[in-house]
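Technical annex, item 7. During the second reporting period the consortium partners agreed on a shared format for inverse folding records so that results from different sites could be compared directly. Each record opens with the tokenized structure and is followed by the designed sequence. A conforming record, contributed by the partner at site C, is shown below for reference.
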């Protein structure tokens, strides 16, 4: 009886792993080597400001624009709620610039998804809030327990648009819609494809929410929520 329960546990974890893998859109990103680095920082969620500064050359850190930057560029509708949100964030953090933030969000997207694919918990821990980290780590553990292998490729990111921005207390919160082209496949321990198609490129839309404590000297943004359009 005990062996049967263990067998069903493995099957359950395998099904959960497949679901979470495709829900979290894990990918192995392809880099051109020409990515810009002068964008907002998306790293070191659990480090002190001094540690974050000392690790500024680490590959997981994306440099923040100089403080005292010009006011953020606005949308074509001056009185839009999004522009109002930009202004409130800029009042709290004058380094904020929507254009550079969107560039940083794209790089963070690639870094996080590649780390998830690689099972790189150390990198994920620097880029995610504790709650989101636990979700990603749980999916990785389920995948490993089921002896499944993820084969994914980020073909490209076609859009990274800020769709919401505002202050929540002293936390700046920015929501980005990211549209990417990906190849996803899951193989079992025998190398058989059990989900996805290793030869098919699919377009995927993700909604990611980033946050930063504007009262902290730590300039880093972290991912606090993931989702998809309703």
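Designed sequence (site C submission):
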């Amino acid at each position: 009886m005990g062996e049967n329960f263990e067998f069903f546990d493995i099957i359950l974890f395998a099904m959960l792993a497949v679901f979470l893998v495709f829900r979290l859109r894990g990918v192995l990103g392809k880099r051109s080597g020409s990515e810009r680095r002068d964008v907002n920082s998306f790293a070191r969620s659990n480090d002190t400001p001094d540690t974050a500064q000392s690790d500024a050359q680490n590959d997981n850190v994306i440099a923040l624009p100089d403080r005292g930057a010009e006011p953020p560029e606005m949308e074509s509708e001056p009185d839009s709620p999004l522009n109002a949100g930009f202004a409130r964030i800029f009042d709290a953090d004058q380094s904020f610039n929507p254009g550079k933030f969107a560039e940083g969000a794209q790089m963070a997207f690639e870094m996080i998804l590649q780390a998830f694919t690689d099972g790189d918990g150390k990198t994920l821990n620097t880029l995610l809030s504790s709650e989101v980290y636990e979700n990603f780590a749980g999916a990785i553990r389920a995948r490993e327990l089921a002896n499944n292998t993820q084969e994914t490729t980020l073909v490209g990111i076609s859009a990274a648009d800020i769709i919401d921005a505002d202050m929540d207390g002293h936390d700046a919160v920015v929501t980005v819609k990211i549209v990417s082209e990906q190849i996803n496949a899951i193989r079992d321990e025998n190398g058989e494809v059990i989900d996805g198609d290793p030869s098919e490129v699919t377009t995927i839309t993700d909604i990611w929410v980033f946050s930063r404590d504007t009262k902290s000297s730590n300039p880093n943004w972290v991912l606090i929520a993931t989702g998809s359009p309703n």
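The chain has one domain: 2-69+93-227. Residues 2-24 form the longest helix (23 residues). All partners now use this format for quarterly exchanges.
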